[in-house]
Amino acid sequence: MSRILLTEDQIQQRLKELNGWERAGKEIKKTVKRKDFVQAMGFVTSVSILAEKMDHHPDIDIRWNTVHLTLSTHSSGGLTEYDFNLAKQIDEL
């Protein structure tokens, strides 16, 4: 998997393959709601396991039952395959 920045066309194509992710500059973002805080935390735990396996860690903000996820490859300065591959795995949770 490459940490090379994707082109604008590649980013737009990869966004079409995801569920509910939106582009925000050099990042992609998604908000996920669960029944309550415990289920939101369970979801975050699942995300953390995926992220750790990939050595690619999202920014996560938890507000009771709402989880905001932000992905970007900071070391590359934007969006790479790492971001979209992790987003796809998150979508499968």
Poorly predicted runs: none
Number of helices: 3
Major sheet attributes: 4 strands, antiparallel
* Alpha carbon gyration radius: 13 Å
Distance separating the two termini: 21 Å
How many domains in all?
A: 1
Condensed summary:
The chain is of the alpha+beta class and 93 residues long. The protein has a single domain (8-91), classed as Gyrase A, domain 2 (2-Layer Sandwich). The protein has helices at 8-16, 37-54, 81-91, and strands at 22-24, 27-33, 59-63, 66-71.
Please explain how this structure is put together.
The protein has a single domain, classed as Gyrase A, domain 2, CATH 3.30.1360.20. β1 (22-24) and β2 form a beta hairpin. The longest helix is centred in the middle third of the chain and has 18 residues, at 37-54. The radius of gyration is 13 Å and the shape is globular. It has helices at 8-16, 37-54, 81-91, and strands at residues 22-24, 27-33, 59-63, 66-71. The protein is 41% helix and 23% strand. It is of the alpha+beta class.
What is the fold's blueprint, element by element?
Blueprint: H1 8-16, E1 22-24, E2 27-33, H2 37-54, E3 59-63, E4 66-71, H3 81-91
Helix pairs in contact: 2-3
